[in-house]
Amino acid sequence: MHVFRLQTAPTLRNCCMKTPAPVYLLFFFCYFIGFAAKAQKEASYWYFGNKAGLYFTSSNQTLLRDNGKMKALEGCATISDSLGNLLFYTAGDTVFNKSHVKMSNGWLLTGHQSASQSSVIVQEPYSTSRYYLFTVDALGGGNGLRYSIVDADAVGNVVAKNIPLQSPVSEKITAVDHRYTRDAWVIVHGSGSQNDNFYAYRVTKPQQPGASAIRPPVISRVGISHAGSFPNNKTIGCMKASPDGRKLALAMQDSSLIEIYDFNDSSGVVSNPVRLRKLPGAYGIEFSRDGSKLYVSTQGETQEILQFNLQAGKGHPDSIRLSMQGILITRSLFAASLQLGIDGKIYVANTDADAKDRQYLGVINAPDSLGSKSKPLLNSLKLNANTHTPVRFSEQGLPNFNQSYLWLPAFKFKYRCIGDLTQFSSIINRQIKGIRWDFGDPDSGPDNTSSQDNPTHKFTKPNTYNVTLTVTLLNNRTRSLTIPVTIAPLPNVFLGMDQWICPTGEIKLKGPEEMARYQWSNGSSAQEIKVTKPGIYWLEVENENGCKNRDSVNILPKPGPVIFQQKLLETCAFVPLKLRTSYRSSTYKWGDGSTDSTLWANREGWYKVTVPYDGCKFTDSVQVVFKECPELLVLPNIITPNNDGQNDKLMLRGIISEGWQLQIFNRWGTPIFEDKNYRNTWPEKAPAAGIYYYLLRKPEAGISRKGWIEVVH
């Protein structure tokens, strides 16, 4: 209700009423911002406030319209045809046609433009041009609920007007389709001391020419009382049906509360109220497109938009109360209307005292989402083109529509890389007759369509595809949603051809630039790795689209020369062996650091050499082992046991096996040492200097040697 239409004291007007102010548009997208949603186009045009106008294109652009002639302080309504062409609009008292002139017989209607929702327009079922314009009075006034019949052909004509239905009623009205037929429900709430009911009027096809298309109301006495005599401030506030027709919600500004009900869109019965109190000056109210969230504009110390999660605690009233959170503080003087658009966003009227600010609308971009994820924006959309003198402003109201025009199915999808089987999940939450998918991929042949609830589709090439989900409702109406789905190419990753690696070499393997993730077979997550060993190495990369690809490369050991033909060489014990490579190289480096082409090996063990070959350095080893050579048996004839490490022991050279027996005699023939398995250990203690005699035998071989040895100190 607008203050200037009340004959009451200023103090009363200021505490309970509404004054003109700017509008905030809150844009909501269904699950994915930027999707092109094809809703019913009957709500394509909006005219509201002070000559303000908007047009919603099928590609979700919001265009300004500067040709509106209407001044609506609060409630208003607009209707377009199924193709989105404007038909007419009204503030409840005057009807303007598509040419923005007063329609024939389209004035002096009894709707009050200062009612929260002055009017709503419903199309006659099965008619392309006949519409019913329902109007309500303000503050429970005597004109109550009335309807007029509009023929929208050509320039339009109001063929009958101000036909009474119910009085008095609250200044709130909403409409939604019938569940099973093409009929529609128009819902109001009574006012006055004896009229505290919901009235649901069914608009149907007339049984015969001239007969009424409006059936007697379904009456539901439920919820809080709106009773009061005119002017009844309890009537102030808006009412909306959810787009799917299953819920009803209303705001009562004077009582600072809202009520949420179940609505049976088959029978018209309103039931099961949930009352939420302590919402100062509650006025505007609106459901998200999927019906899961409810938004309320309030007027307390600040003007705030509140969100309620209707799915909290499986819809338990206490859980819904506790889910309340503020998502946007506006600069409005008074709480203002909220209205869902065909783009899935919710718009909020703006009642800022500054006219320059009232030329803007705020936007909640994703109302199906919780809290800040709903993306509310203040003063987001300007209602005037580039002009220094604004002429079009928001007031307290926004256009009222049949809420069924605003419902759409929704869907999610995942796996968006070429080669993936993309999975689609429909989000409908209501009964339907049928479902059809068109993936926008004609090259896929018969796989381009599906009638499954949650289908999969393998797209034929990287591209952006317009995927359309169409559902048939129980009333045989269809609703479609089109979303551009981008199928991304796989990232290019190529590690090169298989390569040779030198025995001591190093190879750098590098992945493509600017990938979101790198994963190598050795566990590294760097773009580049160094390889020092042969093997098969793979790299998996992931780009910014989440698409993955992998490549591998085989690093092979480079063939080298044959450095040693024989890997095992034998020599007589303690007889030096000259090592020579089979491969003749220009340079050599032996294990001991020498660089000659040959090396003398004078003990058992492995001997290695490194040589260059074909740009690499190759290393090979040969093993030298001692063998027994009795024919080369050598015994020294002098020892010097002075512990200087030289000739301290009697060393048997030329033998390596066991079983040699040694006896030592002094010059008188007395044995002084005997060992049946001599291992070069005599003498353990230095004997006296002089001549000694030895007998060396290997009985099993029949070998015997004898001789003398001198001990010198």
Give an account of the 3D structure.
The relative contact order is 0.10. The chain has 5 domains: 3-406, Neuraminidase (6 Propeller), CATH 2.120.10; 410-486, Immunoglobulin-like; 499-557, Immunoglobulin-like (Sandwich); 568-627, Immunoglobulins (Immunoglobulin-like), CATH 2.60.40; 630-711, Sandwich (Immunoglobulin-like), CATH 2.60.40. Strands 1, 24, 25, 26 and 27 form a 5-stranded antiparallel beta sheet that branches. Helix content is 2%, strand content 41%. The radius of gyration is 49 Å and the shape is rod-shaped. It is mainly β. This is PKD domain-containing protein. Residues 439-460 are annotated as: Disordered. Keywords: Membrane, Transmembrane, Transmembrane helix. The chain crosses the membrane at residues 21-37.
Summarize the structure.
Keywords: Membrane, Transmembrane, Transmembrane helix. With 713 residues, the chain is an all-beta fold.
